[in-house]
Amino acid sequence: MNQRQAQPCPLCGSLLARGDRIRSIAYPGRGEKIVHILGCPKCYPENDKIKRTCPVCRNILPPSGFMIGRMWETQGKKHLHVTGCSMCKLNIRE
């Protein structure tokens, strides 16, 4: 049997249930795409009980905050490299 382990949300660390998806926006580009990662069903839209943290600067993201990354595809698999958040990369504060 090939059972996939539950993966954590990159923002809040909650384990994703089967069928849960990370909400993101991918902007078109050649090769790599810029991606804004908003969160999982547990942390987006805003949930006061769950804090969303940037893995780069370790700041707690405001409700309108998001992570920024680069996404590319190799051999049919999508890969994502997180480069920061709206606070540390774009200096957007709420």
Task: Describe the protein's architecture and organization.
With 94 residues, this protein is mainly beta. The chain has a domain at 23-85. 0% of the residues lie in helices and 31% in strands. The protein has no helices and four strands. A four-stranded antiparallel beta sheet has the order 1-2-3-4, with no helix packed on it. β1 (23-27) and β2 (33-39) form a beta hairpin. The protein is globular and about 40 Å long.
- The oligomeric status of these chains comes to single chain
Radius of gyration: 14 Å
Shape: globular
Order of helices and strands: EEEE
Q: Which whole number gives the mean pLDDT?
A: 88
The number of helices is 0
Total strands: the figure is: 4
Which percent range describes the beta-strand content? 25-35%
- State the distance separating the first and last CA atoms: 47 Å
Strand line-up of the largest beta sheet: 1-2-3-4
How helical, in percent, are the residues? Answer: under 10%
Instruction: Give the low-confidence spans.
Output: none
